[in-house]
Amino acid sequence: MDDLVSLCKRRGFIFQSGEIYGGLQGMYDYGPLGVELKNNLKSAWWSSMVYENDNIEGLDASILSNPTVLKYSGHEDTFSDPMVDCKSCNSRFRADQLDKNICPNCGSEDLTEPRPFNLMFKTNVGPISDGSSFAYLRPETAQQIFTNFKNVVDSSSKTLPFGIAQIGKAFRNEITPRNFIFRVREFEQMELEFFVRPGTDEDWHKEWVKKRLDWWEQQGVPKDNIELYDVPDDELAHYSKGTIDIMYKFPHGLEELEGIANRTDFDLGSHTKNQDELNICAKTKHNNDSNSKLAIKEPHMKDWVVPFVIEPSAGVDRAVLAILNEAYHEEQIEDSSRLVLKLKPHLSPIKAAVIPLKKNNPEMVELAKNIKKQLQSKGLGRVLLENTGNIGKSYRKHDEVGTPICITIDFESLEDGSVTVRDRDTMSQERIPKENIEQYFLTYF
Ligand code: GAP
């Protein structure tokens, strides 16, 4: 993990937030390359959900949440971790993460009894801060999907099965944030709520587990490094009838990368009006506040149905960590070593680097600029003009940040219009006419 963290800082992927003032625990900032990687990853997820499935629509809802939403979702009552305090050094820990009843900080056995600690952040809304008007920072993106259910159904004429996908920030006041970006207090989620006819939910659950494993493989996280964990009943979230966690071998151990839950009709059933008229299976709190019927009438059916929900929910930050971990390679070449990030090209922060051999040669630089412009216009992501005049250093840098191809312009290029292309993974170089560059570039994506 240390090598990865150091690469992330050195090359501008991820920084500790507010580092110049000592940092803020559980918060990280994505630098110039990190933001590109993260955007590419989110766009791969969005394409695989929204663009490839005509029965999935997107949503981008607010982060600040009306407390009533989180009352009926069950988060006010149940979204907590057991916390203990060390009476000697005042450190706080999650009781379920302690090996023995010993403080990992000072070794004292004098700990308080575990007590529930609600993980939601609160903030004031409006100019008065007397606590009468507050909102929660959402602890998951899912709830706004449920509260917008009718809006989306009415505006897009959906019939079952269909889904609503959302990517966005979520916030949890984790007792012990740790392991770099694995467990943080501000993070992003990519969540799909897939609404299905009751009775078909278990088949859809299996189907989504399969689909998600294939997707992770396409992002460079192979099935060999994944284990599925069928969450036992006593560990299930309050809304779940069954959850399969996709567990990945992170540098610090096997941990959850994504959860795929069968949320039954709990959420729609909790947020709907007229609960008594609907055949709701889950145990829900009686709702007097909702003004919307969160049910659907199927064509040719006379009854309203409260759909069941299958929810694949992945963390963007954990995804970035897993993808970087898989891509990170240290290779021995003859008497030296090289560090290379073998990212899938669609995820690479920089798609190609165009490098003039001499930085002060106007013709070379002009040709390089034209090639950069031409490749940039393909809309596949960032193409960089790397005008340092040091080919060896440029290759090393682009290996380390995962750029799939380097294109070098030299004296020969000015004479016969050919350029050298170098492949990141094989380091093989070939000479191609500049007219073929676009076609060559496109074969990577
Ligand atoms: N809507 C369901 C839900 O939020 P979850 O298992 O609590 O379920 C889903 O979270 C995913 O969000 C996790 O699999 C993980 O990838 C990510 N996640 C959860 N808590 C996180 C944290 N504190 N830091 C980073 N990622 C987190």
Count of helical regions = 13
Strand content: 25-35%
What value does the Rg take, in angstroms?
Answer: 26 Å
Mean pLDDT score: 94
Strand order of the largest sheet: 3-10-11-17-14-13-12
Q: Count all strands and give the number.
A: 24
Largest sheet: 7 strands, mixed
Helix content: 25-40%
Query: Cα distance, first to last residue?
Result: 29 Å
What shape does the CA trace take? Answer: globular
Uncertain runs with pLDDT below 50, 5 residues or more? Answer: none
What are the distinct ligands in this entry? glycyl-adenosine-5'-phosphate
Counting helices, strands and paired strands, the structural category is alpha+beta
Give a short overview:
The protein has 445 residues and is an alpha+beta fold. It has helices spanning 2-10, 32-51, 67-72, 75-78, 142-147, 149-156, 201-218, 266-271, 316-327, 362-376, 391-401, 411-416, 437-442, and strands at residues 14-16, 28-30, 56-59, 64-65, 80-85, 92-94, 115-118, 122-124, 134-137, 162-171, 186-196, 226-230, 242-250, 253-264, 296-297, 304-305, 308-315, 328-333, 336-341, 350-356, 382-385, 405-409, 418-423, 429-433. The model has no long low-confidence stretch (mean pLDDT 94).
